[in-house]
């Protein structure tokens, strides 16, 4: 009865192993690295669980029912399962190596639409602060943006200050270009015409201007920010190409005078006005002095401070990655040691089977005795 149980467990190995190899290939070459990595880890764990269950049952048969079970049937199964364990250990080591590579990169997963929306909301919340939104030091500003983002993000969505700033800077360039094209096209679009056709024209124009065959991937971003005053402006294509300089807070700066497509917009209260409303007893000289915070020299100082902050953050990330890499390498080394032990055991078992089936009819009594002693030694080492 137990032999049939062993065969049933054995029949599970091959589909598990095949599925694990497919998942491992996806881990190595797939686009959704984290998802496939987790699937592969689960598959390996299930496979190892069945393997160890099989081995435990088999060893119980060998030790407790040696007399009722034919060794010729049991021992080849034992040899087979040990080789399977070695293969599984190799797969597990490969998954660990891929995991280590993924952790080192730290950029295997693109920002999701939800993560983009959280970042946009955090940026808008901080940039629209009438008291000191634009006069914050860049280092402080992006720390507050990241803090606002992480306040509403899940554990898997958490981002560092550098990740928030870099993603915003990179993406805003594309969004601003798309928005500029939209404003130009809309300014000449006949009133009452189909907006869907307008958007199709804008998308095609963007691909032409950006010299790409891929459609604009951040329409959700653009829909979120296009009603903001900073985006409600029209630019020529030449001006859009020149607008590629960001200040330290992630907003565009341009020497060209912006023209609002819907007329003059009422600007939100400025920093100095808001501070005067907050504290009417402040002198005008202090307000003027505060205005110097937006000067070119202070912008440069803020940029230097931001670079220092990013450098310190990269050093902290590097330390964390090194610690994780050391841990993963230790796990891989443990797997290698266990695999070597299994190989030694398989070699002994193979030798035992060879001696067990060896024809000793031509041996004298001394040779037969030594042969039996070796068999007993190996059997005790393997099963005792």
From TrEMBL:
Record key words, sorted: Coiled coil
Coiled-coil portions: 320-347
Pfam families listed in its UniProt record: Myb_DNA-bind_4 (PF13837)
CDD domains cross-referenced by the UniProt entry: SANT (cd00167)
Xref: InterPro entries: Myb_DNA-bind_4 (IPR044822), SANT/Myb (IPR001005)
Domain of life: Eukaryota
Region (Disordered): 253-293
Location of the Myb-like domain: 103-172
Signal peptide boundaries: none
Protein name in the entry: Myb-like domain-containing protein
Organism lineage: Eukaryota, Viridiplantae, Streptophyta, Embryophyta, Tracheophyta
């Amino acid at each position: 009865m137990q032999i049939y149980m062993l065969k049933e467990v054995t029949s599970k190995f091959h589909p598990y192993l095949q599925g694990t190899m497919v998942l491992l290939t996806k881990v190595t070459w797939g686009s959704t690295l984290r998802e496939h990595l987790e699937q592969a880890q689960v598959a390996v764990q299930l496979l190892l669980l069945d393997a160890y269950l099989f081995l435990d049952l088999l060893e119980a048969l060998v030790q407790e029912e040696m007399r009722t079970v034919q060794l010729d049937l049991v021992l080849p199964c034992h040899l087979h399962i040990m080789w399977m364990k070695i293969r599984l250990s190799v797969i597990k080591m490969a998954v660990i190596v891929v995991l280590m590579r993924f952790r080192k990169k730290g950029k295997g997963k693109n920002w999701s639409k939800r993560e983009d929306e959280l970042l946009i909301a955090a940026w808008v919340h901080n940039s629209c602060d009438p008291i000191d939104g634009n006069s914050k030091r860049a280092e402080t500003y992006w720390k507050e943006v990241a803090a606002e983002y992480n306040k509403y993000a899940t554990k898997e969505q958490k981002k560092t200050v550098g990740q928030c700033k870099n993603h915003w800077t990179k993406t805003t360039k594309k969004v601003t270009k798309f928005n500029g094209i939209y404003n130009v096209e809309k300014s000449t679009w006949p009133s009452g015409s189909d907006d869907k056709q307008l958007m199709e024209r804008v998308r095609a124009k963007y691909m032409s201007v950006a010299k790409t065959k891929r459609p604009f991937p951040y329409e959700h971003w653009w829909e979120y920010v296009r009603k903001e005053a900073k985006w409600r402006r029209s630019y020529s294509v030449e001006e859009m190409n020149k607008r590629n300089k960001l200040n330290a807070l992630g907003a565009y700066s341009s020497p060209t005078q912006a023209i609002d497509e819907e007329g003059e917009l009422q600007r939100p209260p400025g920093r100095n006005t808001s501070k005067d409303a907050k504290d009417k007893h402040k002198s005008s000289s202090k307000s003027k002095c505060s205005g110097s915070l937006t000067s070119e020299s202070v912008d440069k100082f803020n940029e230097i401070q931001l670079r220092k902050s990013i450098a310190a953050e990269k050093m902290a990330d590097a330390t964390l990655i090194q610690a994780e890499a050391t841990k993963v390498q230790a796990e891989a080394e443990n797997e290698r040691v266990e695999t070597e032990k299994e190989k030694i055991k398989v070699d002994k078992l193979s030798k035992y089977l060879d001696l067990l089936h060896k024809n000793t009819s031509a041996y004298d009594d001394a040779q037969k005795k030594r042969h039996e002693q070796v068999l007993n030694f190996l059997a005790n080492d393997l099963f005792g």
